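Q: I'm writing a short methods note and want an example of a predicted protein-small molecule complex. Could you take the sequence and the SMILES for 2-acetamido-2-deoxy-beta-D-glucopyranose and return the bound structure as tokens? Please keep the output block clean; save any remarks for afterwards.
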Amino acid sequence: MRFPLIALSTALLATPAHSFTLPSCTPITSTTSTTLNMASALDELAKLTTLSIDSSDLDEVAKFAKLGCITDATTNPLLVTQAASNGDERYSKMLKDAIMYTKEALGGGDSSLPEPEAELNLAMDKLAVNLGAQLLKLIPGKVSTEVDIRLSYDTNSSVDRARRIISMYEEMGIDKDRVLIKLAGTWEGIQAAKILEEEGVHCNITLVFSFLQAAASAQAGAYLISPFPGRILDWFKSQNGKEGYPPQADPGVLDVQRMYSYFRKYGYKTICMPASWRPSRGAAVEGSAVDEILALAGVDEMTIPPPLLLALSEMDASAVSEQCNAKTSAAMCREPDFVLDEQTYKQYWETDPCGIEKLNQGIDAFKQTTEDLKQVLIQEFN
Ligand SMILES: *[C@@H]1O[C@H](CO)[C@@H](O)[C@H](O)[C@H]1NC(C)=O
Ligand SMILES: *[C@@H]1O[C@H](CO)[C@@H](O)[C@H](O)[C@H]1NC(C)=O
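A: Understood, no commentary inside the block.
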């Protein structure tokens, strides 16, 4: 079942909103709002695509959530690490609790680390869950929680860690329906999603840079994928020495359209929720920051950072027209009906240098932050 992402209201962001002392989102639908500019690009976009904000700063999420504007939230290794290093009491409480929990669960109780890796891993997961649980208090929807990025090529261990994450949420009285397990879009990660979805655990396949990853995710029954059109564009720009592309020819946009069309043509329920945006025409062109967003208007859902939401709210509605539509996109899909097995997948994967480079980069970056997080935890254990 699809969770009801409340469309980002428009009223909030339709006003030139550099401060957020704006009317609440919720009453807008029931109020005749003559004073509000109801004709921004953001209003128009929100009619076509469910929008969600990209932030997991507790205060920022609270601010938008109070206005009824966001339903979901996400965590990732970087955000967990930031939480661990943040002096703010709310975060240091989460950290202390994660350490206590680990000491109790793995015995000992003293400050030494008899099984350093196991303890650090547990503390890391518990911290992510604690952060997720706080976010869930602020939002009505789901929170994504990432499986240890170092397990991206190990299906069984990813499944084990995901099950443990779910059970830690359950210990806190949080149902698995409110959690999405985030897995990197490797073959192994996608197969972990397949096992988890069969157990009723919903997954968000992230770091998607290639149609191949999207197709495999849909075939595995993944609940949601997060393709990154902006980073795909980065690769093509640097590969081809280009300053930019017309939005309709932006390789990142074309890839996401291809994924979406394939899902709709073959009846896959997987939600296509792009995140990571760049100016297709190059940063120098005015208004280009939202090029990719506008070129994908109509896709199922989008994660958009606050500055781009504001940019949309200041543009005229006429900037938005439907570019992705389940019916027409399905009709335009050129893909045959096919089923990927591991061997075929890996053969094709080798022919996708953009996918390989960007996926490796994404995984490496999160591995580095995981190392940083380990250091913070070690300090805390001692
Ligand atoms: C899924 O993961 C992506 C990438 O990390 C994130 O931007 C998005 O908000 C997540 N979706 C949900 C519904 O949590
Ligand atoms: C993963 O787990 C399955 C089921 O328990 C088992 O059959 C398989 O051998 C395991 N794979 C690896 C690589 O350990």
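A: Remarks, as requested: The two ends are 45 Å apart (CA to CA). Strands lie at 50-53, 73-74, 143-146, 179-184, 203-208, 224-227, 271-272, 301-304.
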